[in-house]
Specification:
The protein has about 300 residues and is of the alpha/beta class. Helix content is about 45%, strand content about 5%. The chain is built from eleven helices and six strands. Strand 5, helix 10 and strand 6 form a beta-alpha-beta unit.
Length: about 300
């Protein structure tokens, strides 16, 4: 009996050591900003505007302009497209109230799974934050378990070398966001060597079944709570665009036919020259973000007027 008690005690101590000492090594990393964005989402009174998407939202929206245009608080949940298209939506599900406007701004519509994609990135985002763990889908857990050894190896290495919980990039760190969740990095001009990264921009031509089902179910959940879901489009870098007008029109048509969500924007309106992009094909300069936000405001106003007239 004593051996069992000692074994259990050792296991508990070991677990607590890893959970509170070893695991939280990325508190100042870029993905850790998910914790601050989630806290704002929970604290801001409704009605509010919530933006969901990857880094195209973090580096491509001026939330202050949105707030002034609609007189509503804004929460920018944009983080990292590599995590997947559903992470931000899961954060919203338990925090929807009457009058909320949820705007989906995905980098792509063709992911073949409606789960998190990169488990290590997700581990870095949530680490030992229990409130964020509770938002994950049941189908996300196998991905998180599978990626745990790689994440643990990374954190042990950071802990042993005393390199954890440090700011390693002026652009990509937890503190490089404003109160809304927008990147507050000064982005005056394009810093990519050729003005863009070849074959790394928007190249989606269809809506996957997995995301169609997820987004329609998500819309149902939001509507039940008295909110509204709108879907817009990502910024598209003109010089790297490989899709034809037909491809873009056909994708929009499929979105309109298969989603129960208003598609408020035209892809062709959001094609911008490389001068408006910063360090990737989805990250915009400050000026680019302002121009894109003006377009989004107009699209949202048109969509909301249409709903009021019905």
């Amino acid at each position: 009996m004593k051996n069992i008690f000692r074994g259990m005690t050792f296991f508990i101590i070991l677990f607590l050591f890893f959970w509170f000492i070893i695991i939280p090594q990325d508190n100042l990393g870029y993905n850790a900003a998910a914790r601050d964005k989630f806290e704002r989402l929970k604290k801001i009174d409704s009605p509010k505007i919530v933006l969901i998407g990857g880094s195209n939202v973090a580096f491509g929206i001026n939330s202050n302009m949105l707030e002034k245009a609609f007189g509503m608080a804004v929460v920018n949940l944009g983080l990292h497209g590599g995590i997947g298209q559903t992470f931000g939506a899961q954060l919203v599900k338990e925090n929807i109230h009457e009058g909320d406007i949820i705007v989906l701004l995905p980098e792509s519509y063709d992911y073949e799974t409606a789960n998190i994609r990169d488990g290590v990135l997700t581990w870095l985002a949530i680490e030992n934050d229990v409130s964020l763990w509770e938002t994950l889908q049941k189908t996300d857990w196998p991905i998180m378990i599978k990626s745990f050894p790689a994440y643990l190896k990374k954190t042990i290495n950071m802990w042993a070398k005393h390199t954890g919980n440090q700011i390693t990039s002026n652009v990509y760190n937890r503190l490089a966001f404003n109160e809304y969740g927008d990147s507050n990095v000064v982005r005056e001009s394009n810093i990519m060597e050729n003005g863009y990264i070849e074959n790394d921009g928007f190249n989606c031509t269809y809506l996957s079944e997995a995301l169609r089902n997820y987004w329609n179910n998500f819309n149902d959940d939001v509507v039940k709570e008295g909110g509204i879901v709108l879907m817009s489009v990502p910024p598209i870098l003109k010089e790297d665009l490989k899709l034809s007008d037909y491809d873009l029109d056909n994708l929009r048509y499929q979105l309109e036919q298969e989603l129960n969500i208003p598609i408020i924007s035209n892809f062709k309106d959001y094609i911008f020259p490389k001068e408006y992009f910063f360090d990737t094909n989805f990250h915009m300069t400050n000026e680019g973000a302002q121009i894109r936000t003006r377009l989004l405001i107009q699209d949202m106003q048109n969509a909301l007027k249409g709903k009021e007239s019905k």
